[in-house]
Structure formats: C-alpha cells, structure tokens
Amino acid sequence: MINTLYLPELREMLSADNAEGLRDFCEAIHPSRAAEFMAGLSPSESWQVIQHGVMEDRVDIFSFFGKDKQHEILETESIASVAAMVAELAPDDRVDLLQELEDDRLADLLKLLPVEERRDFQRLSQYPEGTAGAVMTTEIAKLSESLTIREALNEIGRQSETYETIYYLYIVDEEDHLRGLVSARQLLTGMKQPETLLHQVMETNLVTVDVLDDQEDVANQVAKMDLLAIPVVDNQHKLLGIITHDDVIDVVQEEATEDAHRIGAVDPLDESYLRTSVFTLTWKRGIWLAILFFFALLTAIAIREYETEIEKWVWLALFIPLIISSGGNSGSQSATLIITALSRGHISLSDWLRVVFRELIMGLLLGAGLAAMGLIASIFFVPPSDTFINASLFVVPLTLLLVVICGTLTGSILPLLFEKLGWDPAMMSTPFVAGIVDILGILIYFKVASVFIV
Length: 454
Prior knowledge:
By secondary structure, the protein is mainly alpha-helical.
C-alpha cells in the first residue's frame, strides 16, 4: 500500500504544474522511496516528476526505477534531456542501460554524450557479457605511488565526488600498473606523519580479478573475502576498474535468476518477463518441453516393451505413476541440492566421492522409508498368492528402494559431470533429471517384477 500514498498528490501536482511541490518531493524523500511512490505512475509521468529535481536527484531516483520503466523512458523521452542524465550515471549502469536500446536510438544518444563518457561506453561495451569487464566501473580512486599522505588527502578531497567509492584507494605507477592499496582510514591515521610516501604504507598483497574472468567467479570471490570492492586488471596488471559490492549483488541476482530458469527447464531470458515477446518466451520454453517430450516418449516405449507382463498382471500398471514419481522426485531433490551447493561454492569437483557416498546413503534411507509405505500399499492392491509367502508383495517395495537410490545418484552425478565438462550445472534441470530417472524406473520395475512374480 505504501507506493499508493503519494499518487493522488503527485498526479494533482503534475496536472497543476506545481513545480515547487514536485521539486520538494524529489529533494525531501529518499530516492528509493520516491521511486516506490511513483510505481503507479506511467514512465512518462515519472519522468516529468523527476525533471523538477536537480540532476543528482534525477539520477538517484531514476536508478531505483524498474528496468522496464527505465528502458521506456530512454526510448521515448526527449533525447537531449535523457542524454544529459545518462551522462551522469555510473559507467557500468550506463552500459547496461544503453545496450538495451534500439541501434538508431543508441547512435543518436551517443552523439549527445560528452566525449569521455562516450569513449568509456565504447570501451566497456567491448567486454563479453558475463565477464568482469562488463560489470566493472571505471570511476575509481587512483593515486600515484609518489604522492605523500598529505597530497593524497588533498587529491581525494578534490575528486571524491567522481569516485564510486573512497573506502579503497588504489596506488598505481605512471603507466597505471596496480602497485598497491591504502584505505581511507590508513590515510587519516597516517596524518601523524603527513610527508610519508604512499608506497611506504600501501598494502601490496592484493586480491585482483582479470577483466575476462566470469562474473559469477568474481562475485563468489568478493563474498568469500568479504570485500567492499575488488580491482579489475588486464594481462599486464594495469588497473582498468573495480567491481563494488552493489555490483556483486546485481550479479548474484542475475545468476540466481538464470539458475532458477534452467532448473525449471526454461532457457534464461535476456530481458525481463514483460519485455520478452510471447514468441520468444514460447521458443525458450518450447525447446525444453520438446526435450522432455522426447524423454516421456522413451518412457512410453519402455512401458510398451512390457505390454505382455502388464496384460498378465494388471495390478502392475497401478503402481507405475508411483514408481516414476518417486524416482523423479528424489532425483530432482538431489539435483537441486547439488546445483545450489556448486553455485555457492559449498562443494567442488574434488568432493565428488563424498557427494556420491552421501547421496547413496540418503537414497538407501529415503528408499527404505518409501519401501515400507509401498509394502503397506501392496497388501491392499496385490492379488493374493497360492504360495505360503506372496513374493509379489515385495515387487513395489524393492523397486521403490532401487529407484530412489538411482534417482539420488543420477541427480547428484549429472550436475557434477556438467561442471567437469565446463558447462553450467543448472542446465541439468530437475525435469531433465526426472525424465532420465523415469526411464530407468520403468526398466527397474519390470525387471524386479519378472524375478518375483511367478
């Protein structure tokens, strides 16, 4: 409800062209709250509102708009006013937004950007999507190693408004090679000896990432080391930019969304759901549905191979859904656990033996539990036998035990195999694992039946 509190007032001020009221709104309210209050406004109305604020407020509020609203504003509003604001965006945010524009609109907008911002965009947009270079920012505090502490503080005071962060100050030589790092706290405490040179107090044992490193690996490293930012260098160790903790959050969200799509058997979307056309969505979903249809067809073929047995022992057909769902569900659970553990760095390929052993144990325990329930169900559904012990009662319990073990092992091994091959383990989606285990479940079921039924 909070995002509707200001809607009537905002619309009334817009209709009355109340410039003073709209300016106060932009200045007095935190940018994230202001964007939240404008959630019910159209992109055009939202743009009109923020035009009454100073440029800093416009940029801050705009950055909290949803991606769809941002893109529509860039595509439809006055290109001159849009370009003025885009020039003030953080370099990495600017690249992300502009790359979504139509080519003609992008070309027109780039012409209006200052030369430095235009070159920065062209440089950053060269890096492949999903790499450190594509998400880094070039607004970094770089200081010469020949500066004194006093000179460094003066330099920071002069340029601090243009820096992405001043918590970490990177020390470079004359050719921009990264030499070390000092924190703002170090400089302040170092004022006891203000003529000390930076290279005498800087830390040289730095954690860096290459500009072409995968963004997910970078995010994991920042999280593991608990860093506020991490420097990005090229193969000559020249400082190109930094990736800050807020960039890492964006990367984590993006990667989590992609993994969620793949686990749900949907090819990851390049844009948001509403900006993706129905035909594109249909194609991305249809690819996986076709693959899963193929596996379902193989399951049907496997069942057809045992038509004779089903005609002879009709009760076997009653348990087919139970068998395949138990195996598929257990496999999907294992796949989800392993994919998540791999993505968060909780396990690695070197742990494969421990993982397989644990899944085998869990398969035995889970399978035994379901087998016990299967035995009870068999008592009610399996016809009585003339023999002293009705061996048919053990078909479903034993099958459940074997199928669940098969499911847990398949669901754990296949993501590890994909990781070994250098593919995204999330591609081994849970429906895909379930399809494989379904086929194996049918084969196991009728093999067990052929042994126990006489």
